[in-house]
Amino acid sequence: MSAVSDHATQLHKLNMVSGFWIASILRRWWKTFRDWRIEQAAAAQLYSMSDYELRDIGLKRSEIDAAVKGQLAHPPRPRNLP
Question: What is the pTM for the complete model shown?
């Protein structure tokens, strides 16, 4: 009887570990997906701006993707306003 109980306990522990592992993967996947969607929305907003508006906030159209991902070599500098 003890062997059956030990086996059941081991299966229960394995199921708990598997459940935590799956939940961890799902949380990581959801965070990655959510971050990607936020980046896409930010890029879409910037791409919808005119070149004048982009220049006003210190960006060039070719820098939008890098800026959205935080990989811009230099921080955007707004142009001097009168």
Answer: 0.64
